[in-house]
Amino acid sequence: MSVWLCAASVWYPRRRMALSVDIQRLVQTMPKIELHLHIEGSLEPEMVFALAAKNSIELPYASVDALRAAYEFADLQSFLDIYYAGTQVLCTESDFYDMTRAYLVRAAADNVVHTEIFFDPQSHTSRGVPMGTIIGGIRRALDDGKKEFGISSEMILCFLRHLSEEDAEQTLEAALPFKKHFIGVGLDSGERGNPPSKFERVFKKARDAGLRAVAHAAEEGPASYITEALDLLHVTRIDHGVRCTEDDNVVTRLVREQIPLTVCPLSNVKLRVFDTMRDHNIKALLDRGLCVTVNSDDPAYFGGYIGANFESMCDALPITRADLIKLGENAARASYADEARKAELLRLVQSI
Ligand code: HPA
Ligand code: ZN
């Protein structure tokens, strides 16, 4: 007797999809575009320990294995507690460089051709690390990554939504002298009780300064946070957004306006937004015409980089070759690369 699972309006058999050789090969070789990656979330436990030793910081874990063993999360907040503790080992420009460089090496191995990375300056400036140290180290690694791997990139400064809007405004002021290095602002951290409306003024200031705007919404929070992010923060992409299905009007709008969703499959399973990958709604969202993309979020914590996200998704859901091309086209169109690079990215993802 077969057991069936409901993923939004589509029904899939519960048995594991056999990943066809064709899809497997495509997933490995296709050029990838990453639009949702917290650079501090790429800090592997080995590097956490190495930087802690270098900077004489004591960690509450006895070993790399003990730290990795703690990566069992009940929800977003239980992850954020460990994630913010891990960011404390980043102190010097070379620490930010080394972290970013390590991510780019992994991204190159996954055939990433363009990446837009989030950074959380408030986690570092609150410990006395200067804004220029943070942005300078990340930017230098990205510039080297372009030369060495051909990976084009952008940076997006995220405000921590559990802190006040005044703190976000001070952070924006401190970052504006480095504006040529980042393309936009975002909103991350714990969603519950921290609606987009809390940050309306600082997002206006950022947009007035010529910056793009994105926000995490409807990862754990309600679908109405998507509407707030669009109408009050005037974002042009939604990070996660998978709970949009709780309100049909929100889904209809996302389809009509083709607002990109930067979906992170492994993250959503690890943080229990979905029980298993088979329950993930990404295929259903694609089939409903939403502009979805695949990304890794915090790969050091969630079990894999962008390639692993594609693999796990294709392993559990009936993703076709046409779906993979569509996901690539969506990411190229949703990217903040300049028009010439966007056209190039589109050609690359269509050539698979
Ligand atoms: N959600 C919200 N904030 C975050 C995340 C996330 O997945 N990762 C790092 N900051
Ligand atoms: Zn995220």
A few lines on this structure:
The chain has helices at 21-29, 45-54, 64-69, 76-87, 93-109, 122-125, 131-149, 165-175, 200-208, 224-231, 248-257, 265-270, 282-287, 299-302, 306-316, 321-334, 339-350, and strands at 4-7, 10-13, 32-38, 112-119, 152-160, 184-188, 212-217, 237-240, 260-263, 291-294.
Whole-number count of domains: 1
Q: Number of DSSP helices?
A: 17
What percent strand? 15-25%
For this structure, the CATH topology is TIM Barrel
Could you estimate the helical fraction of the residues in percent?
A: 40-55%
* Shape field: globular
Structure description:
- The protein is an alpha/beta fold and 352 residues long.
- The protein has one domain (20-44, 94-350): TIM Barrel (Alpha-Beta Barrel), CATH 3.20.20.140.
- It has 17 helices and 10 strands.
- The strands form 2 sheets. The chain has an 8-stranded parallel beta sheet. The protein has a two-stranded antiparallel sheet with strand order 1-2.
- A hairpin with a 2-residue loop joins β1 and β2 (10-13).
- α1 packs antiparallel against α15 (306-316), α5 runs parallel beside α7 and α8 runs parallel beside α9.
- The radius of gyration is 19 Å and the shape is globular.
- It starts with a strand and ends with a helix.
- The site of zinc ion has 6 residues, from β3.
